């Protein structure tokens, strides 16, 4: 089958593809606000109809929340690869509305210094990204009458509101959804024009603890001096988590399961065009503050963290109160990499705190906060190198296996619920303002994104 | 003049004196709640009438808040000592009402293991204490027709709500209020049956600061690692305030102006019957946590502190949020002793924080939080030793010059506004539950308190 004809079709159809995206962007599918429930439903209906128009069997499936869209194309009995494509049709709320330069659900093309962009809520996250794949399939079908592989489409409408229905739906429909590999288009390129496959994500451990000193709040005049203050105790214990010289976490065994980044991967990262200074300066940093001896990208993608996300205790209102409070509180999260075991780590952190407590101080732990290991992207599979080649061809620049500092739960769910590897390819840029006013998607991301998927589909078919 | 006759009169009049106190206790003079404004007024009226009934010129004086009561007795042109007596007629709110075993404004005598008590809001703080002095004056007048010295009575009705009118009123009536020495009856005995003159109070310095890391709140996935976290920074800086081995504050120059307690004073403290174990155990401590090498009483009365009263930043709601916040906040107070200079100390603390900040962290300071040096009780004045002798006689036990961990602003105001020394003598016990449900005053405190003042008045007249 000829790829060139498909790419030519994509180029010719770009105005119509853009119009279709605009139609989808006009639907106000804000999932977190019940007032927009019917709009979420409408977006699901629109996607079903659009898939049907290409000749793909698709339907809306009810959940306790917003509906899923599931579609299938290709012969289950053939031996071509079976891919699942995941995206989400719901969008973030638009507040603060007054910071938008145009109504968020009246999308338009705008010229910018970096070329034309599609401006509107969901243009990048995730309607625009989702449609890059749909449009690639459309072009392929129009040129060749069918797709080079078997594909299951799986769109959810609750990604921006915690995906409460996702795992139950996957469990209830595991047989139908299981494929050889999942493709996810919900990530960014590491820098403008550098095609990226996110191959290294971090896991997560959450915990929360309370340090109790005196039985009751005390008057700092009466007990100031002999009285143990849990705020001071909390500060001392948090400070004890870190070696300020090296930036390392001092919790015993913290780095067990952490692996150094392979040289080849480091080479890709070093040449991926990531602008460290800009990344740091944009938020007010002059330097990276993590472990010494590691670059910003390594600190963020390949090294674990123990982060304090919240800390509170005592009097926090206006003015002053002369209190030695009974309790101090702290919320922490760890980002995990490699083979770090969240359960073992939770025990180590708790032991560290208990070992460092003063006489008369007590600690209690919040229960049932979840942990998940770092998702493993199985980049040894030939599809990963095949996709990298396809992306490199399209963008005329070596594609990069990047890391991601955050966690993408869906990738972990595909593995844990369906035992299916996932590959994350996305064309967003860091300046897309997702979750913020004036969200946009570069027309170049949309156009070359569609072309990228056309190439990737062919490459995966050959590799599979 | 015969003291014995006065003491006998006090003994005989105790039932009537108790009835008078009960009447005053039935007035619901809660100063902080506007709903009780007329009750505060009523308490002031009652006191004016009661003073008048003894033959003391007294009147209610309006303020922007609750009224003052000012009374005078004695000849301005005589050369007997002129004393000012201060007390307050307002009381704390009574919440939580359900914890009271009887209505708070229906006082009654109850028998307890430590003897009979007068139970009711204000019984100890400060109506009972205030009336010990008034009743001593009444007995003296009844026996001798006049008092041994000239006295100005000064009662306020806003002590439990921050005394907003106090200093302006003192300034506006300085000439009228100025006396040789102020007597204040609003403190406790160091332990049951041990008469106490609070001669060592601590001063106060308040400050508040904010540490800013990134310009905005960051996602802990994206920036966790390279991102400086102001909560960690705050913890490190608070921890750096202290030497955990010695319990000392590490701020350079912090102890400038701190003096060791004279041996004679230490001896009094050591033999004052203070039950250290009980004091600590009652709030959950097994040991004192202040500077090593100092007793609990020294840590609390004679050593300065740097206390964290509030600390907060990041996400503090239910569950978890993966945020590196932009800011962390902290409220501190210092208790000052000796000649510590609050302004110099503020500068030292601010310098310590600034010197310990990491690159990219910034600190800002709340302005206009007040500081006041430790009030100096001029115990070299002969009146102090005279009063101590009088109290020792009454309680048949050596009276003690004690310290107080807290600050009594009125003592400082008498000095700063009227250039008048103050002497703090009180008969409350630590178990009086002031500010709490079921407040009480031992009948013994009331009875021997009245007798104590009769003796003190005579002793001060001789000493003055």
TrEMBL record, chains A, B:
Name the source's superkingdom.
Bacteria
Q: Which Pfam families match?
A: M20_dimer, Peptidase_M20
Molecular-function GO terms, alphabetical: metal ion binding; peptidase activity
Ranges of residues in domain Peptidase M20 dimerisation = 209-358
Q: Does the keyword Metal-binding apply?
A: yes
GO biological process: any one?
A: proteolysis
Does the record carry Protease as a key word?
yes
Keywords associated with the record: Hydrolase, Metal-binding, Protease
Per its record, how is this protein called by name? Answer: M20/M25/M40 family metallo-hydrolase
């Amino acid at each position: 089958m000829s790829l060139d004809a498909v790419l030519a079709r994509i180029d010719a159809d770009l105005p119509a593809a853009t119009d279709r995206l605009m139609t989808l962007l006009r639907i106000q599918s804000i999932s977190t606000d019940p007032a927009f429930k019917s709009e979420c439903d409408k977006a699901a209906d629109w996607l079903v109809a659009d898939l049907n128009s290409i000749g793909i069997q698709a339907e809306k499936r009810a959940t306790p929340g917003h509906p899923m869209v599931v579609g299938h194309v290709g012969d289950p009995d053939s031996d071509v690869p079976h891919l699942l494509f995941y995206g989400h049709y719901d969008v973030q709320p638009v507040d603060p509305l007054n910071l938008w330069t145009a109504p968020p659900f009246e999308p338009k093309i705008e010229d910018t210094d970096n070329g034309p962009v599609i401006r509107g809520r969901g243009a990048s996250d995730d309607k625009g990204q989702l449609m890059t794949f749909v449009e690639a399939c459309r072009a392929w079908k129009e040129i060749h009458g069918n797709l080079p592989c078997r594909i299951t489409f799986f769109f959810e409408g609750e990604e921006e509101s915690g995906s409460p229905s996702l795992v139950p739906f996957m469990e209830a429909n595991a047989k139908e959804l299981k494929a050889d590999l999942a493709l996810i288009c919900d990530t960014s390129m590491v820098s403008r024009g550098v095609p990226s496959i996110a191959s290294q994500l971090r896991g997560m451990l959450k915990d929360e603890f309370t340090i109790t000193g005196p039985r009751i709040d005390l008057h700092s005049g009466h007990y100031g001096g002999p009285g143990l203050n849990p705020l001071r105790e909390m500060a001392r214990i948090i400070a004890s988590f870190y070696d300020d010289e090296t930036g390392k976490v001092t919790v015993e065994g913290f780095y067990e399961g952490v692996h150094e980044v392979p040289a080849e991967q480091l080479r890709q990262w070093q040449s991926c065009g990531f602008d460290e200074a800009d990344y740091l300066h944009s938020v007010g940093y002059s330097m990276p503050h993590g472990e010494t001896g590691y670059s910003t990208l390594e600190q963020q993608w390949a090294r674990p963290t123990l982060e304090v996300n919240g800390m509170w205790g005592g009097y926090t209102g206006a003015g002053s109160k002369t209190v030695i409070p009974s309790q101090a509180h702290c919320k922490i999260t760890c980002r995990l990499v490699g083979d770090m075991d969240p359960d073992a780590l939770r025990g180590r952190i708790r032991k560290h705190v208990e070992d460092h407590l003063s006489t008369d101080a007590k600690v209690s732990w919040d229960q049932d906060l979840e942990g998940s290991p770092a998702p493993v992207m199985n980049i040894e599979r030939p599809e990963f190198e095949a996709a990298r080649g396809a992306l490199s061809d399209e963008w005329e620049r070596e594609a990069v296996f990047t890391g991601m500092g955050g966690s993408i739960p869906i990738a972990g769910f595909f593995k844990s619920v369906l035992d299916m590897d996932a590959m994350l390819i996305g064309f967003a840029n860091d300046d897309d303002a997702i979750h913020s006013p004036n969200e946009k998607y570069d027309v170049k991301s949309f156009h070359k994104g569609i072309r990228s998927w056309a190439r990737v589909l062919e490459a995966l078919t050959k590799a599979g």
